[in-house]
Specification:
This protein is mainly beta. It has one helix and 24 strands.
Length: 420
C-alpha cells in the first residue's frame, strides 16, 4: 500500500493543475454526489449436506469534483448462513463460526481522472478499486454473482494505480497493484492488457501480460520460494453477423525471473474456446465452450495453472477439478466441455446446458470423469432487478467405468440482485 501512495502522490503533482481551477466550493451541490451499489441474496440446497443462504451488499458514494475528476468510496458486506458441506457446520462469510457476524470491508476508495495530461481517452484510477471483467478467466477483482459454492472473497478489490487509454478501436490498460493474501504479504501485481477491435469489421485481437512478484508462497516448491509468477495471454475474436467465436490462450511461467520455468509443476497453460450463433428470428442462441487447463506429470501428479479469473460454470460445478487459494483459482488438470442453448421470451431467458468434466491427462486406476445437466431461468424484472433459478444433476464414473458418488449429485440454486 505504501508503494501505491508514493506513486499516487507523484502522479497528483502532475495532474493537480489540470483540475484545481475547475473546483470551487461555491459550485458544489448535492448533484455532485451520487449513491450507487447493489444487493444480492442467493440460496443453495443440494439435498445432502448443504443448505445455505448468502447475501452480499455493496454501498458506494461518488463525488464529482469536476468534469474530469471523481472520487469513489464503497463498503461491502457479505453474510452466509446455514449448513455448508465444505465446512461441515454453520458458517458466516465462509468461516466456521456459530452465530451472526457482520462483516464490513472498504472495497472502494479511489480517485478517477479523465483526459489525463489533456489527452482525450487517457485516464487514471488511483487507490482501492475493482479491476477486470466478471467473465474473465485471467484477472477479475470485483463483485461476483451467484457463486455460493466457491469458497472465495465474493467482493474483492485491489490497491492499485491503473492507467487506461480507450479511443476509437484501441483500448489499453497498465496496472500496478499491491496483492495481499492471508499467506503472504507485500506481493506486487503488474500487468499490461491491450485490445484492437473491429479489424475489417469482423476481427478483434487482444493480448496481456501479468506478473506476481515477491515470494508468492502459494507457489512454494521444494527448492524454495520463487520470485515471479507470470501469465502471458492472447485472445483473438471473430464476429460475423450473428455468429461470434473467440479463443483465449494463457501460458504460465514460475521462476526466479519473469519468464523462467524453474517450477515445472506450474509450467502449464490454459485454453478457452467459445462460439455462439444468435438466431434472432426465433430468439434462440446455441452456444458451446471448450476449456482446458493444467496437466499431469506421472511422477509428481496434477499440474495447476492459477489465475485471478472468474470462470466457474454450471449450477453444481466440476467437483475437485478446480479449487481456490486465497483469491487465486487453481485449475488442476481440467477439461470442461459445455454445449447449451438460450431461449429469450419477453423478460425471461431459459437455458439448457450439458457439461462434461474430464482430465487433460488421466491418472491410472482411480481417476474419473463427470457429466452435468442444468436447467436455469433468469428474469429481468426491471433495469435494476433480476432473478435467477437453476437446477442441476451431476453423475460420473471412474476410468474403470465404475459409478462415482460425489456427495452432492443434485442441486438447486436461486437468487435475486438489485442494482441502484
Amino acid at each position: 500500500m505504501k508503494r501505491i501512495l508514493v506513486l499516487a502522490a507523484v502522479l497528483a503533482v502532475f495532474v493537480s493543475n489540470s483540475f484545481s481551477a475547475d473546483l470551487s466550493l461555491s459550485d458544489l451541490s448535492l448533484s455532485n454526489f451520487k449513491v450507487f451499489g447493489e444487493a444480492s441474496i442467493y440460496g443453495e440446497y443440494d439435498g445432502r449436506d448443504t443448505s445455505a443462504l448468502q447475501n452480499d451488499v455493496l454501498l458506494g458514494l461518488s463525488f464529482e469534483a469536476s468534469s474530469d475528476v471523481k472520487f469513489n468510496l464503497g463498503i461491502s458486506y457479505i453474510g452466509l448462513w446455514g449448513q455448508y458441506g465444505m465446512t461441515g457446520g454453520q458458517v458466516v462469510s465462509g468461516n466456521s463460526e456459530n452465530g451472526l457476524v457482520n462483516k464490513l470491508k472498504v472495497v472502494l476508495a479511489n480517485a478517477e481522472i479523465n483526459n489525463l495530461f489533456d489527452v482525450d481517452g487517457f485516464s487514471a484510477t488511483i487507490g482501492r478499486q475493482f479491476y477486470g471483467d466478471e467473465d474473465s478467466v485471467v484477472m477479475y477483482f470485483g463483485v461476483r454473482h451467484y457463486q455460493l459454492d466457491i469458497p472465495r472473497t465474493l467482493i474483492s478489490s485491489l490497491d492499485a494505480i491503473t492507467l487506461r487509454y480507450n479511443k476509437d478501436n484501441i483500448s489499453a490498460t497498465a496496472l500496478y497493484a499491491d496483492l495481499n493474501s492471508s499467506r503472504a504479504k507485500n506481493m506486487v501485481l503488474t500487468g499490461i492488457d491491450g485490445k484492437y477491435s473491429n479489424i475489417g469489421n469482423v476481427f478483434d485481437i487482444g493480448a496481456y501480460f501479468y506478473n506476481i512478484r515477491d515470494g508468492y508462497d502459494l507457489l512454494y516448491t521444494g527448492s524454495g520460494y520463487l520470485d515471479n509468477y507470470t501469465l502471458l495471454g492472447v485472445r483473438p475474436a471473430l464476429h460475423v453477423k450473428d455468429f461470434t467465436a473467440s479463443l483465449e490462450f494463457i501460458k504460465a511461467f514460475n521462476g526466479n525471473k519473469v519468464f523462467d520455468n524453474t517450477n515445472e509443476d506450474l509450467d502449464t497453460f490454459l485454453m478457452k474456446i467459445d462460439a455462439a450463433y444468435d438466431i434472432k428470428s426465433i430468439n434462440l442462441t446455441p452456444r458451446a465452450t471448450f476449456f482446458m487447463a493444467g496437466g499431469r506429470d506421472d511422477k509428481t501428479g496434477d499440474k495447476s495453472i492459477m489465475t485471478a479469473g472468474n470462470y466457474v460454470p454450471a449450477v453444481i460445478g466440476c467437483s475437485t477439478l478446480n479449487q481456490d487459494d486465497d483469491g487465486m483459482v487453481a485449475y488442476a488438470n481440467t477439461i470442461i466441455t459445455n454445449v447449451g442453448v438460450d431461449y429469450k421470451y419477453a423478460k425471461f431467458i431459459f437455458s439448457f446446458d450439458v457439461f462434461n468434466y474430464g482430465r487433460v491427462k488421466y491418472a491410472k486406476n482411480d481417476d474419473y470423469f463427470q457429466s452435468e445437466i442444468d436447467l436455469s431461468v433468469s428474469y429481468e424484472y426491471s433495469e435494476s432487478t433480476s432473478l435467477f433459478l437453476g437446477i442441476g444433476e451431476r453423475f460420473g464414473k471412474n476410468i474403470n467405468n465404475v459409478t462415482v458418488d460425489f456427495g452432492d449429485d443434485a442441486g438447486i440454486q436461486a437468487g435475486m440482485t438489485y442494482k441502484f
